[in-house]
Write a structure and sequence with these properties.
Distance between the termini: 11 Å
Helix content: 25-40%
Number of helices: 8
Strand order of the largest sheet: 3-4-2-1-5-6-7
Strand content: 15-25%
Largest sheet: 7 strands, mixed
Number of strands: 15
Shape: globular
Structural class: alpha/beta
Radius of gyration: 20 Å
Length: 327
């Protein structure tokens, strides 16, 4: 069995990739957990019964593995990806280090698998979640415009973001000051919604810009994309309201049937109180859930829907499926 190195495992996406590798039967001796710097004795869970030593990246021989998945900081990945490539290691860039390199394909599993190469990048979790339900729709109706309003949980900022939400919530109930607990977010996050994800680039944020750029990388440059991103006081998951406009006439019942045929997508849309899926329903789930599917009567060929998923889980699944493409 091939040997796989996961770089950046102490929180977020890297940890979720480890979880999936364990669930899918990879042996502990074939998986290496790496951090840029790790003290001797640092361990991490691998499945229910095993643990892995967390090894230091700067002391690890990348030539000893066949696949390296970079979930670490961008500057670390930029330093070590060329080393992995020099040794013939297959590379998944999951931190945006290669996003500006158009010779490196960006892969969404099941959509553009034919572009697999020795080094690939993957889109953000928001784009994976948005585009997976649109794969068959794009082929059938030729999507020309997408508007996505994204409500992201605090885990997009890692453990520190989740801790800040927890600490602020506790302090509010204790009638304590939040002055020392506004380090990750620039506004109070507990019981609030913040219209800001990523750094500002002009009048949009880096996340909004990347959603546009990544969608065009995968679907083609002619598609028009507008994204609005906000952080909500939740720990895990991402919810999106998605509006699409198509070249061809589109019918909501036909769309529902088509989405149901897409692997990894579940349509739960009862049009009654509680007949929809929320973030609290999807933690730890592999599937992407669709509700509130309806015709957008404000344009000629449009539909909209509500889409929720465990953001780390769907992103990690995309990575695992890409690894499987390397025979």
């Amino acid at each position: 069995m091939r040997k796989i190195a996961i770089i950046g495992v102490e929180e977020g996406l890297g940890r979720e990739v480890l979880n999936l590798l364990a669930e899918q039967g990879h042996r502990p001796q074939d998986v290496f957990a790496l951090e840029p710097r790790s003290v001797v004795g640092n361990m991490i869970s691998f499945g229910e019964d095993a643990e892995l030593d967390v090894l230091s990246l700067d002391k690890f021989d990348l030539a000893s593995v066949q696949v390296a998945v970079f979930c670490t900081a961008t500057e670390i990945a930029k330093k070590y990806i060329p080393i992995a490539q020099k040794h013939g290691v297959k590379v998944v860039d999951a931190c945006g280090a290669m996003v500006a390199d158009f010779d490196t394909p960006m892969l969404l599993s099941g959509f553009n698998d034919e572009k697999i190469a020795d080094t690939v990048s993957v889109p953000s979790s928001e784009v994976v979640q948005m585009l997976q339900p649109l794969k068959n729709l794009h082929k059938e109706y030729q999507i020309k415009r997408v508007v996505s309003t994204i409500f992201a949980a605090t885990n997009v900022y890692g453990r520190s973001g989740m801790d800040e939400l927890f600490n602020q919530t506790r302090k509010i109930f204790m009638n304590d000051t939040l002055a020392d607990d506004q380090n990750v977010f620039h506004k109070q996050i507990a019981f609030n919604v913040i219209p800001h994800l990523g750094d500002f680039i002009g009048d949009e944020t880096s996340s909004e810009w990347s959603i546009n750029a990544e969608t065009k990388r995968i679907f083609g440059g002619d598609i028009k994309v507008h994204a609005n991103c906000a952080i909500i006081p939740a720990f895990v998951g991402t919810a999106q309201y998605i509006n699409i406009e198509t070249q061809k006439d589109i019918d909501v019942d036909e769309v529902s049937a088509l989405i149901k045929k897409t692997q990894g997508i579940v349509v739960f849309d009862k049009h009654t109180d509680g007949g929809y899926v929320t973030l609290a329903d999807v933690q730890g789930e592999d599937n992407i859930y669709i509700s509130r599917l309806r015709q957008d009567v404000s344009i000629d060929n449009g539909i909209s829907f509500w889409c929720v998923a465990d953001n780390l889980r769907v992103s990690a699944l995309n990575i695992i499926n890409i690894i499987k493409l390397w025979k």
